[in-house]
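writing this on my phone so excuse typos. first protein, seq and then structure
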Amino acid sequence: MPALTAGARPLKPAGSSSYILLVQHLIEKCLVFNMDQRECVEALSKHANILPAITITVWNELEKENKEFFSTYFQNMKNRREQDSCSQAAPEQMFGDAAAQVRVQTLDQD
């Protein structure tokens, strides 16, 4: 991604329409990476030097204008995160069960 800052200041004044469109574009990129608002605010603040208040304001406006999209997006994100937590728990449970069986077998052999 090209550098979006000039020194420690944003490239354009925060009120300009091209700056708002830039923030909107960056938020859309965050959505492609399945980020929630907090993650997007942190990423844009850290990597593009966008003030959190600006990101939050643009995000909230996008949500207002695209209610159906965000409703589906948040539901899909929730489902994905639930699947991820189940996927992470399955190996732990599997290895935990296997370790318990090994302990039982070891005790039986003694």
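second protein below, same order as before
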Amino acid sequence: MNHDHGMEGMAPPPSSTNGTSGMHHHMMMMMHMTFYWGENAEILFSGWPGTRAGMYALALIFIFVLAFLVEWISHSRFIKPGSNNVSAGLVQTFLHAMRVGLAYLVMLAVMSFNGGVFLVAVAGHTLGFLLFGSRVFKKNTDMSSYERTSDLPPMTC
């Protein structure tokens, strides 16, 4: 059975004289590919939050706030009616960039496959939607006013 996966004819990496096959003296950390529980995680940045429980808790709070902010930006009105189209368009573009950037940071944090990070990301999005996007705290709940509650279009995948 051929296990080359279309790599026939590819030369192997060059061997070095010290026997490391071209690898430098760096420790390679295995990335989790399944969900795991525990405070010994690496989230967003190399070595962060480390192995201390307090730093892990701070990282979880940070991820929660990021997810919450995505929902706040997604459901807020920052542009006043009657604003200049150019300035309104620039504000809208800035808000879109902020929302997408924050959402990508949350996504990258969840890709650490840490169960706690996943739960706080979902909790942040949930609480943010409850407070800013749902009808629970809206004064006027007719559909015409509910549909236009944000300066940004809905996020799509």
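The mean pLDDT is 81. thats all i got for now
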